[in-house]
Amino acid sequence: MAAGKRPAAGPRSPAAMAQWRKKKGLRKRRGAASQARDSDSEDGDFEIQAEDDARAGKLGPGRPLPTFPTSECTSDVESDTREMVRAQNKKKKKSGGFQSMGFSYPVFRGIMKKGYKVPTPIQRKTIPVILDGKDVVAMARTGSGKTACFLLPMFERLKTRSAQSGARALVLSPTRELALQTMKFTKELGKFTGLKTALILGGDKMEDQFAALHENPDIIIATPGRLVHVAVEMGLKLQSVEYVVFDEADRLFEMGFAEQLQEIIGRLPGGHQTVLFSATLPKLLVEFARAGLTEPVLIRLDVDAKLNEQLKTSFLLVREDAKAAVLLHLLRSVVRPQDQTVVFVATKHHAEYLTELLAAQQVSCAHIYSALDQTARKINLAKFTHGKCSALIVTDLAARGLDIPLLDNVINYSFPAKGKLFLHRVGRVARAGRSGTAYSLVAPDEVPYLLDLHLFLGRSLTLARPHEEPSGAGTDGVLGRVPQSVVDDEDCGLRSTLEASLELRSLGRVADNAQQQYMRSRPAPSPESIKRAKELDVAGLGLHPLFSSRFEEGELRRLRLVDGIRSYRARSTIFEINASSRDLSSQVMRAKRQKDRKAIASFQQGRKEQQERQKALAGPSLRCPAPQEEQPGKEEDGGENVELVFTEVSGQKRQRPPPHRGAKRRREEAQQRDQEFYVPYRPKDFDSERGLSVGGVGGAFEQQVAGAVLDLMGDEAQNLTRGQQQLKWDRKKKRFVGQSGQEDKKKIKTESGRYISSSYKRDLYQKWKQKQKIDDRDSEEEGTFDRRGPPRRGGKRGRGPAGASQPPAPGAPAGRVRSELKTKQQILKQRRRAQKMRFLQRGGLKQLSGRNRRRVRELQQGAFGRGAPSRKGKMRKRM
Ligand SMILES: Nc1ncnc2c1ncn2[C@@H]1O[C@H](COP(=O)(O)OP(=O)(O)OP(=O)(O)O)[C@@H](O)[C@H]1O
């Protein structure tokens, strides 16, 4: 009986009624969430309302409907039943399980097999809308189950394997690893649908991909670059695609993939359904205009709480050159020995160097980066996921989408330059209800990025208290320093390892150079964060609570001493050192100090006030848990700004005097806001949306403005031939390059009329077909291709996928020539013949006749008794 259903009218046993009442009582006590969960039957069978069954007259009162019709049944019946279930569930608004979504049985079975009992919030929100056929742009935080959101409706739409030509669904992923993972999910969740999937990834053999597409898959999962390559080679029109998914859509739409996406979208038919998913999507849908969305529904969850509650974050302030030592300490002493950790680094050179360095220190690890061979990438990832090594060192290639079960920690060796990259990186842990920790090593020059991140998250950054033991408030979200003793201990071991290995030293040098390049190329932090970072007194920061075991008195004393030395300001200038009071330089300095004593006093006063303001500051992105202690050596050193004095003495550019007190007060008053009438010129979510923006540079307004520019040149450029297109002088390359700043490479025109790099067309497909002896007619029969063929450099088109309407190739004999390529039947016949040949060559005939002879003997014995004399005549003949 369906959970909680009153037994239908008719004779009821008292026991059944008592059971029903008991259930009803129980249900009343439960909350709304658990009611939703109840609606999913535990055993995976669909159940239907008793009243409905009774009305239908097919089932006994309250009896469950055993299963949905399987895919063999006619789709009419299936859709009727689904409608029935939907209607029923709509009546019962409480139900919010997978069952209420009206999936067909094969899809539902896949969900149950995967072990999903209750849909996640984003699944509950998006699946019904996608099932209704609407275009959807959806955002929810990492690990919230977005993959199932687009796969389940896709299975439901495609239903079952179709003989219809061409793929009907296309899933685009930004990285190969993510595409592989989506393939895995597709196989698991769509296990009972029988749909065929082809994986088109860069780095894999193109020949295998041609073969996969020749098998007429229902779904194509691809990375954009390789899909365009295959599509151009094969002349794939993708006209049968009804459902397109842009997974990690913001990444796909960020620069880099623009050309490929335009080409793919240009090949899609009108009226297809498009869904976009990511953990970081802006609310400005105009940024996805290129995706060809039609009246899209925007669903954004977790806009405010972007980080998972189960995720703990720690920010460690370390010098760049001490990062390796701190990383080693974290892996050895902070994370548990059984933990699995992913380390994000800036470049592949860092990945190589750190892998070797850690291996030399007996920390087992593997690495992945985009330039690594695809097979090595797969092997290294498998090594890590199977627990063969405890750390995986990766570049941002692995930041998105990777779902590594049982992953515990993420370490940001290099701090991400963008807030949303941080979200994706740390989103590898604390997935699907699990907990996890993210440690971030922050070099002093990365502090502005840290402040940018907190602006983006809308969270406050907590600073560790200086020279004090932590109050036990926890380590979450705290920025603190690493004890010098930790750095020294680990650094000692690392130095001796480096001294012993020439290879490691050269890898280290390469990594250092790469770091310089990376720092030059990373996007700049926002100006306000740079300003705040300058105001932030990082030298006065306390030890991170993570190292509480190191908070011995000795360590704190040492820290105080080091800080004292760091902030020491000499009372006298360099001209007065070792100079007697009669020396000219000393006299000049004293006279100067005397003359400027007012200015010096006011400067000191201003500085003090600034420090006090900073302490009291509890803004959205910066908060001190307690007033900071006064820095030793700072209070009475006079703090004379030597630079200022010297500029004044030498009569150079005059520093602006500190503002007059009255002017200051007036300015402060002007800054006070009347909350009743104050209208901010920026929306509240400005920083957050700026971080999510796909366009990259500038805020949302800047982008809107940029988008509103009427680009007459752009239109004109389209009418120009390639030779006429405007070129501009590249000073670095010392030659003319195309409008986009790209070198004017050789281009070919595609079916969709766009120009793409000629490297996409190398006639690999034709060669493969010749090798496989595939007739073009077969390609057409198999229906993978459009009737129009692939573009040829010489304007030639073959038969088969190329279509018969094309002009013959120059030099080809006129009229229809009998193709030398074999038909499907001929290939099958040839295969059978080859099989037979192999059989004969193996001596199969001899074996067969021997077996026959033995059988005859056995039969003879069975029929006539052992050693019976052979009979002549009819009986023997029959035998
Ligand atoms: N309804 C569900 N019940 C239980 N587990 C689920 C459910 N949906 C998804 N999961 C599991 O949650 C994990 C994360 O899912 P998925 O990879 O789809 O997340 P995501 O939102 O796509 O993450 P990312 O943004 O990082 O790509 C997976 O292990 C998946 O099997």
Task: Explain this structure.
The structure is a single chain. This protein is α/β, with parallel strands linked by helices and 879 residues long. It has 33 helices and 19 strands. The strands form 4 sheets. Strands 10-11-9-12-13-8-15-14 form an 8-stranded parallel sheet, with helices on both faces. A 7-stranded parallel sheet has the order 3-4-2-5-6-1-7. The model is unreliable at 1-14, 23-75, 617-621, 623-655, 711-725 and 780-817 (pLDDT under 50). The structure holds adenosine-5'-triphosphate. Adenosine-5'-triphosphate binds next to helix 7. This is ATP-dependent RNA helicase DDX54. Residues 606-615, 666-690, 742-752, 760-776 have a biased composition (Basic and acidic residues). A motif (Q motif) lies at residues 96-124. Interacts in a hormone-dependent manner with nuclear receptors.
Task: Compute the average pLDDT.
Answer: 73
User: What's the helix count?
Assistant: 33
Which hetero ligands occur in this complex?
A: adenosine-5'-triphosphate
Amino- and carboxy-terminal Cα gap: 62 Å
Shape: elongated
Main sheet: which strands, in order across?
Answer: 10-11-9-12-13-8-15-14
Uncertain runs are 1-14, 23-75, 617-621, 623-655, 711-725, 780-817
Q: What structural class should be given to the helix and strand makeup? A: alpha/beta
Q: What's the main sheet like? A: 8 strands, parallel
What share of the residues does DSSP label as strand, in percent? 5-15%
Percent range for helical residues? 40-55%
Estimated radius of gyration = 36 Å
